[in-house]
C-alpha cells in the first residue's frame, strides 16, 4: 500500500491531560507510515503547550494568542498544514478521542484512495464502553432527516446500538467533525470550514452538504473505530455549554436555509427546532426514542433561545 501524506490536526484549549492521552494513543496505536501531527492551541493557560513541547517533540504546535474556538482554530491548522506540508489529506480529530486500533488510519486512506470523487471519509465513533456513538446515516434525500441532521447526529441509526449494525462502508449524508479526513483537492475546490458559523457547531454538517453539492462523496468507514468522549470540553467548561443550544439552533437554521431554502426550513424545520428546544434525551448515549425523552428544564428560557435563533431565518 502507498502511504500518501496525512496531516492530523487537533485543537486544544486548556485540556492538557485529555490532549496528552489523545496524543499518546495516536502515536502508540497508529501503524500508518506517513503522517504529521499538528496541535493548534487556542491560548491555553494550563501549560498544555509546554507539555507538548516536552513530551511530543515530533509534534508541530500552532499557538493562537486567544481562544478562537473550533471553526477558526481548525481553519488556521488547515492553512498551516497546507503551506508547510502540502499533504494529500488533512484529518481533523478532537483532543477528546482515543486511538486503539492500529489500522484505523490505513482503512480510512484505503477507502479514500479507491475513488477520486471521495472528498471526506470518517470512522465509526464509539463510547469508551464500545457502544456506537456515531455511525453515519446512509445517503438519502429524505428532507426531514436531512434537516434533523443539521441539528444533531442523535437520530443516527447507529446511536447506542451494537457494532453489527454499523460496520458498513458507504456514502452518508454527513461526517462528524470529531474525526474526519478531508482530501486536499476538495479543500482547494470548496474552501475551508464556514466561519459564518463561528465559534462552533454544525460546521461539519455544512461542510458535508457542501461536499456532495459540489459532486464529491462523503463516505463512512464502519470498520475503522475511534473512541470519542463526546463534547468533553463543552461539558467541562460550563460557561460555554450554556451557549450550546443557541449556537446549535442558530447554525442549524443558517445551514438549513442555505441548502433547503426559506420555505422548506420554515415548514419542515420549525417543528424539528421546536421539538429540540422542548425535549432532550435522558441518556445521552442512547438515540431518541419515546422512552428516552424528557422535557427540558426552564422551558420558557429555551423558547426564548429559539426565538432569538429564528431571526437568522429572516436575514
What keywords describe this structure?
315 residues, Spore Coat Polysaccharide Biosynthesis Protein SpsA, Chain A, 2 domains, two-stranded antiparallel ribbon, 12 helices, 12 strands, 21% strand
Describe the structure.
With 315 residues, the chain is of the alpha/beta class. It folds into two domains: 231 residues, Alpha-Beta Complex (Spore Coat Polysaccharide Biosynthesis Protein SpsA, Chain A); 76 residues. The protein has twelve helices and twelve strands. Strands 1, 2, 3, 4, 5, 6, 7, 8, 9 and 10 form a ten-stranded mixed sheet that branches. Helix 1 links the parallel strand 1 and strand 2. Helix 1 runs parallel beside helix 2, helix 10 runs antiparallel to helix 11 and helix 11 runs antiparallel to helix 12. The radius of gyration is 19 Å and the shape is globular.
Which CATH architecture of the largest domain is right? Alpha-Beta Complex
Output the structural class: alpha/beta
- Give the low-confidence spans: none
- Profile the largest sheet: 10 strands, mixed
Radius of gyration: 19 Å
Work out the helix count. Answer: 12
Give the amount of beta strand, in percent.
15-25%
- CATH topology name of the largest domain, in short, is Spore Coat Polysaccharide Biosynthesis Protein SpsA, Chain A
- How many angstroms does the end-to-end distance come to? 50 Å
Number of strands: 12
CATH superfamily of the largest domain: Spore Coat Polysaccharide Biosynthesis Protein SpsA, Chain A
Helix content: 40-55%
Mean pLDDT: 90
Taken in chain order, the helices and strands follow as EHEHEHEEHEEHEEHHEHHHHEEH
Q: What is the top-level CATH class of the largest domain?
A: Alpha Beta
Amino acid at each position: 500500500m502507498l502511504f500518501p501524506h496525512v496531516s492530523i490536526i487537533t485543537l486544544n484549549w486548556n485540556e492538557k491531560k485529555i490532549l496528552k492521552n489523545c496524543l499518546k494513543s495516536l502515536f502508540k496505536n497508529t501503524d500508518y507510515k506517513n503522517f504529521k501531527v499538528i496541535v493548534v492551541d487556542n491560548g491555553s493557560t494550563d501549560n498544555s503547550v509546554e507539555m507538548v513541547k516536552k513530551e511530543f517533540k515530533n509534534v508541530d504546535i500552532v499557538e493562537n494568542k486567544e481562544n478562537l474556538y473550533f471553526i477558526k482554530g481548525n481553519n488556521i491548522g488547515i492553512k498551516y498544514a497546507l503551506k508547510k506540508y502540502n499533504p494529500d489529506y488533512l484529518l481533523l480529530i478532537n483532543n477528546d478521542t482515543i486511538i486503539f486500533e492500529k489500522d484505523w488510519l490505513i482503512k480510512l486512506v484505503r477507502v479514500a484512495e479507491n475513488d477520486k470523487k471521495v472528498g471526506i471519509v470518517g470512522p465509526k465513533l464509539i463510547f469508551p464502553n464500545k457502544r456506537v456513538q456515531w455511525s453515519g446515516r446512509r445517503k438519502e434525500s429524505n428532507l426531514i432527516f436531512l434537516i434533523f441532521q443539521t441539528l444533531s447526529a442523535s437520530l443516527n441509526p447507529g446511536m447506542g446500538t451494537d457494532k453489527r449494525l454499523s460496520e458498513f462502508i458507504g456514502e452518508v449524508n454527513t461526517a462528524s467533525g470529531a474525526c474526519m479526513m478531508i482530501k486536499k483537492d476538495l479543500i482547494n475546490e470548496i474552501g475551508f470550514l464556514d466561519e459564518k458559523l463561528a465559534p462552533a457547531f454544525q460546521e461539519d454538517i455544512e461542510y458535508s452538504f457542501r461536499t456532495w453539492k459540489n459532486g464529491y462523496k462523503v463516505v463512512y468507514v464502519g470498520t475503522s473505530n475511534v473512541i470519542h468522549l463526546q463534547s468533553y470540553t463543552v461539558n467541562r467548561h460550563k460557561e460555554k455549554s450554556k451557549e450550546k443550544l443557541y449556537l446549535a439552533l442558530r447554525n442549524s437554521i443558517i445551514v438549513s436555509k442555505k441548502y433547503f431554502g426559506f420555505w422548506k426550513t420554515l415548514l419542515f424545520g420549525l417543528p424539528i427546532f421546536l421539538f429540540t428546544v422542548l425535549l432532550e434525551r435522558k441518556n445521552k448515549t442512547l438515540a431518541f426514542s419515546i422512552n428516552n425523552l424528557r422535557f427540558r428544564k426552564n422551558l420558557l428560557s429555551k423558547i426564548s433561545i429559539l426565538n432569538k435563533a429564528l431571526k437568522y431565518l429572516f436575514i
